[in-house]
Amino acid sequence: MTTQEQPGFNARLVRRFITIAAPYFRSDERWRAAGLLALLVVLLLGQTGFNVMFNHESGEFTSALAARDADRFWSSIERFTLILIGGVPIYAAYYFVRDTLGLRWRQWLTQHFLDRYFAHRGYYRLNAIVGIDNPDQRIADDVNAFTGQSLYFTMIVLGALIELIAFSGVLWSISQTLVYFLIAYALVSSFIAATVFGPRLVALNFAQLQREANFRFNLVRLRENAESIAFYGGDAREMSTLRRVFDAVFRNYQRVLRWQFKLNLFQYAHKFLTIVLPSVIIAGDVLSGELEVGRAIQAAGAFAAILSALTVIVEHFEALSRFGASIDRLYGFSDILDQQATLPAGEHDDGVGQIHTAPAAELAIEQLTVLTPQREHLLIRELTLAVPPGQGLLIVGPSGGGKSSLLRVLAGLWNTGSGRVRRPAVGEMLFLPQHPYLPLGDLRCQLLYPHTEREISDAELLLWLDRVNLPALAERVGGLGAELDWAKVLSVGEQQRLAFARALLAKPRYVLLDEATSALDGVNEELLYQQLAGLSITPISVSHHPAVLRYHRQVLDLPGDGSWTLQAAEGWCPG
Ligand SMILES: Nc1ncnc2c1ncn2[C@@H]1O[C@H](COP(=O)(O)OP(=O)(O)OP(=O)(O)O)[C@@H](O)[C@H]1O
């Protein structure tokens, strides 16, 4: 979404807010949510009631002092103290209930986003295929800001309405001129805030959130790739990238500050005028003795309360514009997640639809045409083959020829193209990439991932480590329960062997190996392939090592122009 597309405070933003907010109040948690919300409104009413009482008593004891009436003064202070004792817990309870509801809402909304992020492998598609900036920041920060700010502003607007009703009567009874003046003043200032500052600040805050997230993402990338960067001596380059990314944060924030400065000029002029204006308007009545001084104090209090109710947008403009930005970011994200969930399965402009997958005991491909996800390149045209159990397939071809892409199709990650893939269930086909994924967790978890809940004895796990030639690993790292940053403490070859142990333990029917033994010496590679054969696991390998040829029956050559050749492994010579 570009900055030009950002709406200001308009009906579209309100609709977007409702789209994101409403599902929680229709969810299973709706009764609890409604209960907490109702309690919050009651507490808010209580707060306003106490505000009115405080305002009344302030006027009362000021008038008593002005009249030098000690009895009237002390009895007013007594009432004031009682109001205080009753009011303080209501104020505290209000914030507690508001933030509890906010926290529960955040928990629900985070789960709602995570569910959709994981559905149809959205986390993969969005990052590798569609490309949306910083989904992590949207889930972690924007959801938090959204729920907190939604309640904050809803309550502020509701509070403003209640105050408006509560204090209008007081002010009307003191001075009708003040009421008319007040309405005109509030209308003009709100109009200026919404039209002059609104669109600008929402757009700038949107950009700010995006740039902050980019900066953090670049820092995380630096940490994750620290070793490669150090080997390359890429410090200066990385530093200059980080400086450039931060520069974008800095420059945008400068623009935010400039607009905030203008807004503050406007807000403070607006605020300080309201201190003096009511006194100026009713000064004549007090000086002529028509109004008590205390009544003038009450009028000023009521004036301030009503004005802040009427100008709630002006007063909270900065926060409101940040809130608008996070609504936009969440809406954009939510929209893409929903689109991903309902991707059309029909024909596209190029006349090619989607690859269909059907369950089968034996892996087979029929008339498979593969395109890159955005359909810009045709990688494979009308490939047909079968991989019967025990008859491994070796995929070869030049770099960029589409070897990994074919594995992605077999694993169900890509489906752009046409034709049919018949394949066993997910658990029966395991994928081993060149750089294995080693999740956070102990050594046991590395072996059992992703089904870490399986109960397998330590002795058996150690046996599998032994079989992939890592006999001393557990002892070296401090046992199967040791938790380390595995990608850092293990060599790539050790990581590949560990991932192999994971695959052997899972005993799938097929294993897809994408240069999964590239870092191993010939002896270790041979050992691993023998283990596969021993367990009747059929390999589908992408490999540049001729030595693995003998563990496969067929060789598929993908030159990268869409054509392909399939030959028997026996007698095949690497070109
Ligand atoms: N997500 C993507 N979007 C667009 N094009 C892609 C995407 N992923 C890969 N490609 C392109 O598809 C082509 C095939 O990529 P693939 O990874 O399958 O090649 P490969 O044969 O495995 O290469 P290598 O041997 O270098 O690993 C390449 O030109 C690559 O740039």
Shape: elongated
Question: From the coordinates shown, what is the CATH architecture of the largest domain?
Answer: Up-down Bundle
Measured by DSSP, the beta-strand proportion falls in: 5-15%
> In terms of structural class, how would the helical and strand content be classed?
alpha/beta
What is the gyration radius calculated from CA atoms? 34 Å
Total strand segments: 10
| CATH fold name of the largest domain | ABC transporter transmembrane region fold
Rounded to the nearest angstrom, the distance between the terminal CA atoms is 48 Å
Estimate nothing, just give the exact number of structural domains: 2
Alpha plus pi helix count: 18
| CATH C-level name of the largest domain | Mainly Alpha
Which ions and ligands are bound to the chains? adenosine-5'-triphosphate
Mean pLDDT: 86
Reading the helices and strands in chain order gives: HHHHHHHHHHHEEEEHEEHHHHHEHEEE
Share of helix among residues?
55-70%
Largest sheet: 6 strands, mixed
* Oligomeric state, counting identical vs distinct chains: single chain
Q: Which stretches of 5+ consecutive residues score pLDDT under 50?
A: 1-8, 345-349
Domain ABC transporter: 363-569
Keywords: ATP-binding, Cell membrane, Membrane, Nucleotide-binding, Transmembrane, Transmembrane helix, Transport
Transmembrane segments: 33-54, 80-97, 151-172, 178-202
Subcellular location: Cell membrane
Layout of secondary structure:
Elements: H1 11-26, H2 30-66, H3 70-118, H4 122-130, H5 135-174, H6 176-224, H7 226-232, H8 235-287, H9 293-310, H10 312-315, H11 317-341, E1 356-359, E2 363-371, E3 378-387, E4 393-396, H12 403-411, E5 417-423, E6 429-432, H13 443-448, H14 458-467, H15 473-477, H16 486-489, H17 492-506, E7 510-514, H18 522-534, E8 538-542, E9 554-557, E10 565-568
Parallel strand pairs: 1-5, 4-8, 4-9, 6-7, 7-8
Antiparallel strand pairs: 2-3, 2-5, 9-10
Helix pairs in contact: 1-11, 2-3, 2-5, 2-9, 3-5, 5-6, 5-9, 5-11, 6-8, 6-9, 6-11, 8-9, 14-17
Bound molecules: adenosine-5'-triphosphate.
